[in-house]
Amino acid sequence: MAILLGVDTGGTYTDAVLMRDEDVVLASAKSLTTRHDLAEGVGSAVAAVLASSCIEPQDISLASLSTTLATNALVEGQGARVALVYIGFAERDLTAQGLQDALGDDPVLLTQGGHTHDGSEAATLNTTGIVDWAKAQDVSAFAIAAQFGTRNPAHEVAARDAVRAATGKPVTCSHELSAKLGGPKRALTAVLNARLIGLTHRLIGRAERALRDLGIGAPLMVVRGDGALMSADQAQERPIETILSGPAASIVGARWLTSAKHALVSDIGGTTTDIALLEKGRPVIDPDGARVGPHRTMVEAVAMRTYGLGGDSEVHISDEGLEAQVTLGPKRVLPIALAALDAPDIVHTTLDAQLNRAVPGEHDARFVRRVAGQDDIGLTDRALSVLVRITETPQPLGDVLKTRLDGQALRQLVSRGLVQVAGPTPTDALHVLGRAAHWDTEASEKALMLLARKRGGSGDRHAADAVGMARRIVDALTAATGTALLEAAFANDGMDAPSTLARHDLLHRGLQRTPGLVQIQAGLSVPVVGLGASAQMTYPAVGSWLNAETLLPDHGDVANAIGAVTGRIRMTQEGMVTSPGEGLYRAHLAEAPKDFADAESALTAMEDALRALARADAENAGAASVHLHVTRDIKRVTIEAREMFVEARITVEATGRPRIASHEVETAL
Prior knowledge:
It is a single chain. The protein has 669 residues and is an alpha/beta fold. Among the domains are: 82-197, Rossmann fold; 313-474, no CATH class; 569-668, Translation Initiation Factor IF3 (2-Layer Sandwich). The protein is 38% helix and 24% strand. It has 22 helices and 29 strands. Strands 3-2-1-4-9-10 form a six-stranded mixed sheet, with helices on both faces. The termini are close together.
């Protein structure tokens, strides 16, 4: 018998689950995610699940972690300051694929070098200039992308080695993350990977120590964005592959919990709602690479649509027009109910004082606190001046912001993860309505009363009382979730402009069965699997809104943790063989391109190299026995009745179960 431990670190909760042989859930537990030190939440959740199950720590044979950390960081615009070395590209290439938007104010070096499409050197690499520039940058990590770096990675490797030696800082090469062409998109993926390295190192390192402190000696696995497992060491090198890790684990968990063959799976967390399609019992993979927020990467992942919509989404009330509109997200804030649990005197005293004022204030029911242990590299002087006013204890936001420019500085601090804002959320609304009672309901009532008494363009209050305000917020959550599911459904159906269709008046008339001369009915044709801590409280209304069957499985609140231990190791390596001239076949190997006189020799050399790399990756991830599957996608054209080789893409997939789990099962047998 093998005992498996799954842990999921979400934006609000850290979940832990113990399973026996992937067959039975023995126990589950939750703890608040502790952003200042994620290991505290991991340790608390694991300790709780061990206590409730009476399982000894040394009996655990596999530990696996899924996390929304990377996803949330990208959605919220967080991450460390990084620098990009962009080799062989023009300045206009910075605007492609959203690269400049992702970089923001982070430094970029455009320098000569790179290769042509056949792997030949396009220009000499100026390594000395790159090193001089890199040493002058105040950043946490570097990303390097060279033109046609997947056809010949020599310049990326040379720049990486030089920058790493000169600065001692982490360096990510674009060819290490994808074998596909598309320089700007690879560069974007490398930038995001570099930005996440520090966050991921802190999470995984502290999580491993927390497990060791509890006496758990099992190796730690991490869930990738496609639902497969990788080792903790691999995750620290390639954290970008963990984007959508938590959501991908939830899809694997949903399949295990419901046995559903065809369904939309919607996982509502604190920060995001993640929607994916189960088809023939397997999650659909995104052929264009994972999209998170505005970013389209080259990371293979579940075809997931991620929305900044969760239980802790920031509540916005627009005063434009006669009737104020309630909208949610995409930023996450700390619920007032939770902030009051941490600092009851400060929160209640502040809320009472604000309620006693005759005129509502701009920053009513909003607080701010500092997140410990974060660096302040690259902050503006104004941001630093605001940061020094903020303590680790919640403070009224109005006491911290002195000018409008301070508000801009605060947004920078929030985006860097240095401070956290607390304010009204759907979680507070659920507390007011009696559907949740985890934290301080009285504080939620006061905060929503402050929102309710504000007035819209018509001069009327937003709501008569806190309950009325809570209903408006929950109704907004229902509509936003339903719209997100419709958009995902239209996108999976291959429809153009799915966002527009999901919001079309005609569709909504059909959903609401509005009477008229034209009778229209609409609804989803597949069930919705609702997962997440608040799904039981919110998704029945979503199902009614969509005219859809809703599946709310037992243990759905820990589906991510279940998926973390029911996945498999799967490593993929891709390579290209091209034909730069008649009778010449070039295998673009990892070390350098190599030419052959016939196609089969080049294909075999490429395949052998990829087999070795894929097997090594799988074994390094802890796979017990590795199964290899090879795919050759060969493109040929016929010219004057003669078939000509154009190029071939070879893919090698290595799969297997984690070694320690397989060993324990075999021993028990």
